[in-house]
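Tokenised fold entry reproduced for absentees:

. . .
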Amino acid sequence: MSESNMNGVEDTLFIPLAARILASKKYPNFFYDQKSLQFDNLKQIKSINNKSSEYTMLASVARYYVMDKIVKSFLSNNENAIIVNLGVDLETMNYRLKDYKGHFFQVDFPSVIKARERLLKKLITKLL
């Protein structure tokens, strides 16, 4: 299944990504996600931006902001801890918190993990 024809639960994985992109562009002092910005050109992101309010998007990002603080605190006190992210979708916490010592494992539907791998591989290839 390609990311362009996902539907149902898998299609919703682009919504939080769009929110992280919006916040990173408009409010980088509050929340900044460099890896998410690399997905800004996806057609799904443009479609979501046209349908969503800024309030809804920032409410979504507030969750990531709080979770990042909690995980940073945990990793600061538990070197080499293991973080398991269930329902990972296109979450990029492992990139945002790369300066902290810990191991991140991402779990989701097989089709979502495959799409995630394809999207990240495309980005890595573009950057080389």
Observations:
- The chain is about 55% helix and 10% strand.
- The longest strand covers residues 81-86.
